[in-house]
Amino acid sequence: MNDVKRRTESLEEHVVALCRGARAAAPILAQASTEAKNAALRAGAAALRHRTGDLLATNAGDIERAKAAGETAAFVDRLTLTAARIEAMAVGVEQVAELPDPVGETITEWTRPNGLRIAQVRVPLGVIGIIYESRPNVTADAAALCLKSGNAVVLRGGKEAFATSASIASILRDATGEVPPDAIMFIDTTDREAVRIMLRQAGLIDVIIPRGGEDLIRAITEGSRIPVIQHFSGICHVYVDRAADLAIAERICVNAKAQRPGVCNAMENLLVHRDVAPRFLPAVAQQLEAAGVELRGCPETRRLVPSAKPASDADWDTEYLDLILSVKVVDSLDDAIAFIRRHGSGLADAIVTTDTDVAERFTRAIDSAAVFVNASTRFTDGFEFGFGAEIGISTNRLHARGPMGLRELTTYKYVVRGTGQVRT
Amino acid sequence: MNDVKRRTESLEEHVVALCRGARAAAPILAQASTEAKNAALRAGAAALRHRTGDLLATNAGDIERAKAAGETAAFVDRLTLTAARIEAMAVGVEQVAELPDPVGETITEWTRPNGLRIAQVRVPLGVIGIIYESRPNVTADAAALCLKSGNAVVLRGGKEAFATSASIASILRDATGEVPPDAIMFIDTTDREAVRIMLRQAGLIDVIIPRGGEDLIRAITEGSRIPVIQHFSGICHVYVDRAADLAIAERICVNAKAQRPGVCNAMENLLVHRDVAPRFLPAVAQQLEAAGVELRGCPETRRLVPSAKPASDADWDTEYLDLILSVKVVDSLDDAIAFIRRHGSGLADAIVTTDTDVAERFTRAIDSAAVFVNASTRFTDGFEFGFGAEIGISTNRLHARGPMGLRELTTYKYVVRGTGQVRT
User: Fold this and answer.
1) Which terminus of chain A is more solvent-facing, meaning fewer CB atoms within 10 Å of its CB: N or C?
2) Domains of chain A (ranges plus CATH)?
3) Could you tell me if B227 and B397 are in contact, meaning their C-beta atoms sit under 8 angstroms apart?
4) What is the largest CA-CA distance in chain A?
């Protein structure tokens, strides 16, 4: 596949050739019309549906190998395709076709006193490297988002779903129509050295987006000569202020912890102002425990909620990704802010309060990618933000921060129009 | 200086302590009022003026050492202060105080169907590391821009102007008023190992901006665990189209090459459409040669301009930073685009044409940080763009591209205001 001959070339030459293919396709894709890109996406979705039988057969091989290797049922489920999952993948690709094209958008423009008209225009980043783990649907998802945002992509899928991911990439490449197929490149080897080679191609790949666990992201960041968009842990807080509407606070706390505990934007630490703790904590504890949540509290919390276990120092810095919650009673807004600055991961933190001054102080002081007032941290998500798609959530401070949609896969250039101006 | 005890600590501990100081000051500075920041800048400017005598005495020591080390006159000039240069430095700091504060600006906001109001709000990057060479005025310039944009700064000045830069940093630190002095940290050792230690502090410094030559930038990029905003070479092109106004083309070419040849946004390669070459090249060659420019041409150019030397293959990829220009006759707009894509550095390129379709095709196809139509590449500059200041010009594609002013020293956070919304 990928139309690159392998016979005698080394792994290094092969991986570099794939990256070069993407680099060569990038300027063509960058100038492709919205119609051409959407046509490629719709044709790709149709081809995925059409090839459902083949995909399921290929996937059965991956599943068999994973089971033979003794992988857990949850792991095998992640790499398993079904007809319904292939349909969902195709719909996802079609939805990306429906989104507005960010490329060519004028972000801002102005005229200088000398008459120069300066426009800041959105353009693709260039070539994006996506390194992911076992879910094969990332192949279609990431390829679609990169293609729509005008970026060529080099995909490196996890070895457990390798055959399935390779097959999805091949199907999409065959359906690109006017867009060059090399805009979607798939690293067709499970050799781990291929990743290291990829991470050295700073002239060919503009940015690396790892999709997977923290270990993957750290390893890639350590080894990369290319900028990496990181998604590190989410230790999210909810602070229930003395002026909170306690009914709202209960609803938000239960949602932020228990609606889907295994994700980065779920609450891990609950902070409660001393003045409302006696009224609030027993009631919310009952609801959280009814939802299956184990509570670990400070001494004050345990006095009010005797069923809570004692929280250790490590608990305040732990991303449980599970039905466990650490709870602390604080003396003031300032204490809550200081606690979040110390223990938060800068992803998402919330305050529940009816006091607008307190809310204002909180939103100014907490420097997280998303700061919520009277809403659940679970809304930290590209779809919930209205981006229509999400390539990931960035915990970087540079370039893109928080949920990343199509716009966050672009950069800009300045187009300056004059009438013969020169500098004096 | 910097209030950090050195006695027994290692170099590593010392540099880390300085970075920690900046990190601790960062959230306080990030929330400082515009008035407090401007007061610090104005007091700093006044202190620089007040301490002119001391600064000149300190600078005399640096000059003496540089001369004793056999540095060139041009090198010594770069690190030399005069009363006029100190006054210019103070005025520069005051000008930064006059600029609008980017922090807190709402970039965009929208309301979701569920009633959530989402605002994207500009916030400082955090801690910026500036690594620079011999010009001591960078100390004041960079410190002022970082302070106004709410960022703490760790300054590492070149060893030749070390005493002068240390003194400028100390003066500014003493004048910060309400802003914590540790918002301006200066690495008070010339040990080269200090830079390597600094580049490893990914938890304490958010971004590194090197100010200096390409060797410095490459060395820092190689050694850094922190994102680096790079400023690589400027191989800028002017393409004179068949539909060019030749009087405008002449003016732009002479300006782009000769007005200040030693800077990154000066033209290095001139491309001329075959149809206008016989009329244009002899005339512009005469003007360029009158301005002291040496011409190196393709065979066609040399036929029309016999005084031109032959251009070698290397010439098309050389940033002369000097009164030398490579000239090539091309057959078409497409040839010009292909040539620029191959030889350009992606900083700034210009077209001269009266044909709006051709201009449109050029601006779409050329993916440089700044693309000019009928204007000189020399306008690629933060002041000329109206930013009021410039920390540098980025050749990165991520985060900021092209001229960087105060806004480009910020990131954003999302502030989401609700009325009790939870995710379903």
Assistant:
1) C
2) 11-223 (3.40.605.10), 236-379 (3.40.309.10)
3) no
4) 78
Chain-chain contact of A422 with B398 (C-beta, under 8 angstroms) = no
Give the per-residue pLDDT at A1.
46
Return d(Cα B5, Cα A7) in angstroms, integer. 63
pLDDT of amino acid A214 = 87
Dihedral (Cα; A83, A87, A90, A96), 10-degree rounding: -140
B200 touches chain A (CB under 8 A): no
**Cα(A126)–Cα(A146) distance, integer angstroms:** 9
Is B129 in contact with B226 (CB distance < 8 Å)? yes
Give the residue on B whose Cα is nearest the Cα of A120.
B370
Residue contact B417–A386, C-beta within 8 A: no
Average pLDDT over residues B270-280: 98
CA B347 vs CA A302, A414, B193, B268, B401: distances in Å: 61, 10, 32, 12, 9
Tokens found for residue B366: 């050329």
Token pair, residue B160, equals 């030749």
Which residue's entry shows tokens 């923290």?
A214
Is A419 close to B248, i.e. CB distance below 8 A?
A: yes
> Is there a contact between A206 and B398 (Cβ–Cβ < 8 Å)?
yes
Query: Do A419 and A115 touch, CB atoms closer than 8 A?
Result: yes
A8 pLDDT tier (thresholds 50, 70, 90): low
Paired with A269 in beta bridges are: A237, A326
- The pLDDT-based confidence of A127 (bands split at 50, 70, 90) is very high
Q: Residue length, chain B?
A: 424
Contact criterion met (CB < 8 Å) for A248 and B420 = yes
> A67-71, A222-226, A406-410, B8-12: which has the minimum mean pLDDT?
B8-12
Q: Is A376 on the interface with B (CB under 8 A)?
A: yes
Closest CA to B393 of A413, B401, B385: B401
Residues 6+ away with beta carbon under 8 Å from B343 = B235, B237, B269, B316, B317
Q: Show the tokens assigned to A366.
A: 């907490």
What number is the average pLDDT over the span B135-155?
97
CA distance B271 to A136: 48
Q: Which residues of B touch A401 (CB under 8 A)?
A: 411-413
Q: Name the minimum distance, in Å, from the CA of B74 to any CA of chain A.
A: 24
Instruction: State pLDDT tens for residues A165-195.
Output: 999 999 999 999 999 999 999 999 999 999 9
Exposed/middle/buried for residue B417 (C-beta within 10 Å: 0-12, 13-18, 19+):
buried
Do residues B416 and B117 make contact, with C-beta atoms less than 8 angstroms apart?
yes
Give the ipTM: 0.95
Nearest to A206 among B251, B397, B416 (CB): B397
Chain B CB within 8 Å of residue A117 CB: no
Determine the Cα–Cα distance for residues B227 and B229; give it in Å rounded to an integer. 7
Q: Give yes or no for A421 touching B (CB within 8 A).
A: yes
- pTM equals 0.94
Strands A152-156 and A106-111: unpaired
CA distance B107 to B120: 6
Stretch A268-293: mean pLDDT: 98
At A334 the pLDDT is 98
pLDDT value of position B27: 96
Give the DSSP per-residue string, A75-111: HHHHH---HHHHHHHHHHHHHHHHSPP-TT-EEEEEE
In order of A116, B17, B39, B273, the CA distances from B21 in angstroms are 43, 6, 21, 58
Q: In degrees, to the nearest 5, what angle opens at C-alpha A162 toward C-alphas A158 and A167?
A: 135
**The two structure tokens encoding residue A391:** 């390539």
Contact assignment for B123 to A379 by CB distance below 8 Å: no
| Structure confidence at residue B7 (pLDDT) | 54
